[in-house]
Amino acid sequence: MNEYIKNDPWRIIEERFLPERVRAAESLFSIGNGAMGQRGNFEETYTGETLQGSYIGGVYYPDKTRVGWWKNGYPEYFAKVLNSAFWIGIRVRVNGVEIDLAKLKVKDYYHELDMKQGTLSRSFTVEVPQAGDVRIESTRFVSMKRTELGAIRYSITALDSDTQAEICPYIDADVRNEDANYNEKFWEFVSNTPLSVTMKTLKTGFGVCWAMENVLDGATFDNRTEGELVMQCTTVPLKKGEACTLYKYVGICSSLNHAQDRLAEAAADVAREARGAGFDTLLAEQVQAWAEKWAGCDIVIEGDDQAQQGIRYCIFMLLQTYTGKDSRLNIGPKGFTGEKYGGSTYWDTEAYCIPFYLATQGEEVARQLLIYRYNQLDKAIENAAKLGFRDGAALYPMVTMNGEECHNEWEITFEEIHRNGSIAFAIYNYIRYTGEQKYLADYGLEVLIGIARFWAQRANFSPEKNKYVILGVTGPNEYENNVNNNWFTNYIARWCMEYALEAAWWVRENSPADWERIKAKRFFNLETEGRQWAAIIENIHLPEDKQAGIFLQQDGYMDKEQILVEDLDPAERPLNQKWSWDRILRSCFIKQADVLQGIYYFQNRFSPEQIERNFRFYEARTVHESSLSPCVHSILAAKIGDMDKAYELYLRAARLDLDDYNRENEEGCHITSMAGSWLSVVEGFGGMRADGGHLSFTTSLPPNWKAFAYKIIYRGRIVNVRVSTSGTEVTLDSGEPLEITVNGEPRLIK
Amino acid sequence: MNEYIKNDPWRIIEERFLPERVRAAESLFSIGNGAMGQRGNFEETYTGETLQGSYIGGVYYPDKTRVGWWKNGYPEYFAKVLNSAFWIGIRVRVNGVEIDLAKLKVKDYYHELDMKQGTLSRSFTVEVPQAGDVRIESTRFVSMKRTELGAIRYSITALDSDTQAEICPYIDADVRNEDANYNEKFWEFVSNTPLSVTMKTLKTGFGVCWAMENVLDGATFDNRTEGELVMQCTTVPLKKGEACTLYKYVGICSSLNHAQDRLAEAAADVAREARGAGFDTLLAEQVQAWAEKWAGCDIVIEGDDQAQQGIRYCIFMLLQTYTGKDSRLNIGPKGFTGEKYGGSTYWDTEAYCIPFYLATQGEEVARQLLIYRYNQLDKAIENAAKLGFRDGAALYPMVTMNGEECHNEWEITFEEIHRNGSIAFAIYNYIRYTGEQKYLADYGLEVLIGIARFWAQRANFSPEKNKYVILGVTGPNEYENNVNNNWFTNYIARWCMEYALEAAWWVRENSPADWERIKAKRFFNLETEGRQWAAIIENIHLPEDKQAGIFLQQDGYMDKEQILVEDLDPAERPLNQKWSWDRILRSCFIKQADVLQGIYYFQNRFSPEQIERNFRFYEARTVHESSLSPCVHSILAAKIGDMDKAYELYLRAARLDLDDYNRENEEGCHITSMAGSWLSVVEGFGGMRADGGHLSFTTSLPPNWKAFAYKIIYRGRIVNVRVSTSGTEVTLDSGEPLEITVNGEPRLIK
After folding, report:
1. Do B72 and A556 touch (CB under 8 A)?
2. Fewer CB atoms inside 10 A, N or C side of chain A?
3. Total-model pTM
4. For residues A471 and A514, what is the distance between their CA atoms, to the nearest angstrom?
5. What percent of chain A has pLDDT over 90?
């Protein structure tokens, strides 16, 4: 374990300046407000290794696909989130020497992300030639309340002598994506003023304006305006021991929310209003907004400080990545912490993130994520049509920004189709938790019909097996490609058709007007299509190994050499770095939960013995070389009472980024898998289930924890669960009384 | 059918100048001499759409791999043949107007490739403003005798008036590959003289010098030497009706055959000697050399002019692509006609080309192709080691120049491992035809051991099946990826181990010194390794469908929807342009012979009924979307007596390029599949077999042919086979008497 980050329940603290850690720390210390985000870059000049990263949700660019060998059906573009203007910049020269941590000696470095209030602070002393020690302290945040605002307080103190400082806050919009496929720039210059710069994305034409207001007591600024760079400079005396403080307020407005020709005005307004309110007021708003966020979702762990810090970090990062205010946005695997994976939407959202937001931020927030997919249904139908499907069959993309497929590996893009199942499952999961059946009539059924149609066309009848089969797929375990009859895929395909039928009947019975509208809009014929679906539901091939009493990951899995993970030479791990791809593919080793993902989704349908047998079989073969893997295994381990295993798997997930297990923090944090860590606590140890409109808890305490407590929002209530060695208490923080079950016993909480 | 090319038994003739056909015609009119080749580009300036292409066998560049998503094990580079200096260039200005067919009106255009003598000629008249009609005639060849020489005769005649011409022969070495992955230039300038330029390839450091000698009666040249461009200019009077003729002799010498510091001298020598000999002498040498080439290999078809022209074109192109003089060279899929596929070696060589060269150019030529692989054995062992194989197991690359793998699609690179089988089969095939068992002791056994070791490690035992299985492969039918137990792969894997054992015993018995040497060099233990191989040989899984009486392409093939090619909507063809890749993969449609490739290789092991059942089943599902596909099917169709099918499939192959079926001639011709066309005639209709050291012919005549005749070289003899409606005659052109079988009856030919 890497103990670089200091332990603290509410703060992420870095106490040393290590140049080789700067890029990784920039990822960890990212801040965001759902609408935009900023990596933990330094305000002042830094000429060392860095990834300057500033991202605006929903502002993307379709980068031309790069492949080795083109396959028919590949998308032309990968829509990726854009690295955008560096708005935090403050150039500082003391006695003519530029402050640059890569070049000066640094002392007393302290870097803190305060998760309780959503602020990032940094302080350090640098030795400036001919000026002596200079102390710098900064605090910044992107406002949760004013979602188009970033604010910075930046203080400079000369500790050893009177001297002079030139201070130049600036916005630099000459920015490129590090992951551009062809090294192209994605932005073009539109216009500037002394205090703002407006840019436009190529191809997509998103306009964004960054406007600043700078305040430094008693100082006046000279404007230096050079195209994409706008800067204001002032030279101020630094009296020994007296702090000189700059306040920088930046309004960031995009054409997602404003007319193109009003962007500069809108951004200037945001900055001016912030200046009017003042930093302290804005900070107070921020503290308040974050207190409200935490109210329904904190997790307290007693007796394990590292676990405490880890889980709060996960929750914090998720809360600042997505707020559910805009159904055009979603959650990229790296959130606002880096460029990798293009900032696009994956099935991570449905499988991991929706349960988190549903239980911590409420129905409305999670619902926006469902609406996001609803709004992209027609694109999913187009996507399926490109692959030869007809009549309104929908295949949601593997990776997307605007509903169009972006990914370009045939084994993933075309074949990892189980994602369609998770998108349907999220609808079911939402309704199960909220009780809002009407969602089916409003939005859900249309999506379910599209998905069920896809499965009905994608399955074919095998006379050989006298069964319906689904050939040529990649399951969640991406260490298999192009397999036949992946159990999880076939199982969820069947379930999708069942649920679509059930939903259709419900809407027909309960919402006749919607039923007529949907039937007409989607050319849906319940009789003929339903009959076809029913035939497949009744007779789909679900591979099993009866002797081992397990579901079989896919046809032919037992032909593989059956070696266990514990037999692997540690020098050969991780397999994806040590083995060639074909060797991984033909081995029995599993990247992430596959059969077990299905068992997790549909726990009630399997006996405890079935769950245990499958868990033992597959866990022994799973290498967890995906950040999304350990959480599902941890939940199932807790369910079968293997607390050591559950805890071991939980720990791998919860501090993955804080401890930089995989040495890849430089690229950003694993945002979506953080939701999996939360699930491990709440559904794993906390045993929370919401089946059949009834909340229940089957709890267990990891051996080294004294107690843990979590809060969830459930149908208008805040429910507080505390598990300790002396038992499980469930209380209501707010809301109407509720009948629940705790460890098998009914209770009424008030 | 596209009847653009005029029919002629010995010539390829183009009688129109069509700008949109220029690039395609450049491919068709390529010339070569085994050591180098030149596309049919125009000597004079051409500003229209063109691919200037000049290639030198063995001079390659490792271009950095380009992929979308990196997989562990991919090679860093794709070694590709280099487009090199444009040595044919002659800039012509008449009355100051540059001759450029893209800009002037062209009349009486005539383009001819004479296949009998290996020359390319072109004549045309252009209307030159203020000068009237100007007639140009050119003839060029790359010398078969002097393999470092190219020669051009270029005449200009002013038809309408006296005028002046500026004539500037040049060499331009500022050349790039159109298929460069990152648009980089692969050459650097070394030095020049007024008559030569020397270049060096980056990374690989191959040096090449091009040196010219220009002769134009009575003219003196001014030298214009500008780095990579060397040019000589002269201005001559053009008297109305009198031809002015330039002779250009170019020596092309590379560091493959000369010391780097002697390249300029060597190339100048070649050019000077050619100038000394004179064009007519060189041409006479060329005619003589080609007569010798054709002596043992012509095919005459009576009653089908198109088929006649088609098959001669195939033979001609193969003869000018590879001559067997240098074991460092091989046959790229496009030969010297284009850049596609990098000019690298594929299993095409073993499966198609070796039988052709063996029977038409003799043992020594074919043997060089075997030695090529022998010389790369250690690289094949390294290649296997990269994929996790040990102890001298060899996996030959899918695509290579120098023995290192170049290809970068995991499903091909890592999984299309049947290629290893064809490389072993070529050794068997060579010995079967030549009787030279000693090849095993000299070279063959070492290769066979490496290959057998690979298969023994690649198979694993499935307790489920109680059989050895080979998982995760791509068969010859590349419309399936990552399948289990591809019948062809398993069958040839078994055969490789059998043959390696047989070869080992033979060498042990017959060549004890070689046996000891090989055992020591390859750490080979016949007892232990042989026992392991024998276990797999005895018990390998070979999937069958007993009900249908066929071998099964792979496990699970019968789960696919069984549609036939005849049921496909023609609008959906070719599938590889109309269907997404996943749809192709899960369909039953077959790109090229797979099970049938195995049946073709091992015909004697199957009953006529087995061959017919498998042929009927698989032919009905084969879309032949590879140029390598129809020939094997044609041979088997002839074998089972379905002459209509055999002829239909033959025609698809034999005029593929001449008629530009696939509209892809621009990229070059399908050189390796031309060997397949030859096989269709000689092994298909001609029914030639050489099993068990005995030559036999089982002949059949396509319905619309009056007769056909072919020659083969067999163990020092030239054998002449003529099949007509009145029967089959087999005679000897030269060599010792031979007992053969003709249509089941023994004969002695003298």
Report:
1. no
2. C
3. 0.95
4. 35
5. 93
CA distance A697 to A430: 18
pLDDT tier for residue A3 given thresholds of 50, 70 and 90: low
By the 10 Å C-beta count (0-12 exposed, 13-18 middle, 19+ buried), B748 is classed as exposed
In angstroms, the CA B677 to CA B311 distance is 7
Choose among B461, B578, B585: nearest Cβ to A472.
B585
Please give the average per-residue pLDDT across A181-196, as a whole number: 95
For residue A51, how far is the Cα from the chain centroid? 19
Question: Encoding tokens for residue A385?
Answer: 């049509």
User: What tokens were used for A528?
Assistant: 């003929």
Considering only CB atoms, which chain A residues are within 8 Å of B556?
A: 471, 484, 555-556
pLDDT at B41: 98
| Residue A280 burial by Cβ neighbours in a 10 Å radius (0-12, 13-18, 19+) | exposed
Q: Which chain A residues are closer than 8 Å to B586 by Cβ? A: 460, 471-472
Query: CA-to-CA distance for B409 and B478, rounded, in angstroms?
Result: 12
Q: Hey, are the CB atoms on A579 and B388 less than 8 Å from each other?
A: yes
Per-residue model confidence (pLDDT) at position A340: 87
Whether B411 is a known active-site residue: answer no
Length of chain B: 750
User: Is residue B343 very low, low, confident or very high in pLDDT (cuts 50, 70, 90)?
Assistant: confident
- Is the pLDDT assigned to residue A49 strictly greater than 60? yes
> Cβ contact (<8 Å) for A461 and B561?
yes
Q: Are B207 and B190 in contact (CB under 8 A)?
A: yes
Task: Tell me the CA distances in angstroms from B88 to A487, A527, B94, B210, B667, one per residue in order.
Answer: 63, 73, 19, 11, 20
Rounded to whole angstroms, the Cα distance separating A48 from A103 reads 8
Ranges of beta strands (E only) in A227-277 are 229-238, 243-254
- Chain B contact probe: residue of A183, A474, A560, A581 with most B CBs at under 10 A: A581
- A410, A471, A584: residue with CB nearest B560: A471
Task: Provide φ and ψ at B17, rounded to 5°.
Answer: -100, 110
Query: Tens digits of per-residue pLDDT, B198-246?
Result: 999 999 999 999 999 999 999 999 999 999 999 999 999 999 999 999 9
- Assess whether pLDDT exceeds 60 at residue B1: no
Read off the tokens for B732. 């000897």
Nearest residue in chain B measured CA to CA from A67: B68
Q: Which helix (DSSP H) or strand (DSSP E) does residue B36 occupy? A: strand B36-38
Query: Which of B372, B447, B352 is closest to B682 using CA atoms?
Result: B352
Backbone angle region of B628, left / alpha / beta, with phi > 0 → left and psi within -120 to 50 → alpha: alpha
Which of A478, A480, A625, A667 is catalytic? The answer is A478
Residue A595's contacts (CB-CB under 8 Å, 6 or more residues apart) are A487, A488, A550, A551, A552, A553, A614, A618
DSSP string, A321-341: H--SS-TT----TTTTS--GG
Tens digits of per-residue pLDDT, B660-716?
877 788 999 999 999 999 999 999 999 999 999 999 999 999 989 999 999 999 999
Q: What is the CB-side half-sphere exposure of residue B212 using CA atoms within 13 A?
A: 31
Give percent above pLDDT 70 in chain B.
100
Picking from B559, B577, B584, the nearest residue to A484 by CB comes out as: B559
For residue A714, list its beta bridge partners.
A717
Burial letters A82-115, b for 16+ CB under 10 A, else e: bbbbbbbbbbbbbbebebbbeebebeebbbbbbb
Q: Which residues of A touch B408 (CB under 8 A)?
A: 68-69
pLDDT above 90 for B103:
yes
Q: Which residues of chain B have a CB within 8 Å of the CB of A556?
A: 471, 484, 555-556
Torsion (CA) A734, A735, A741, A745 in degrees, nearest 10: 70
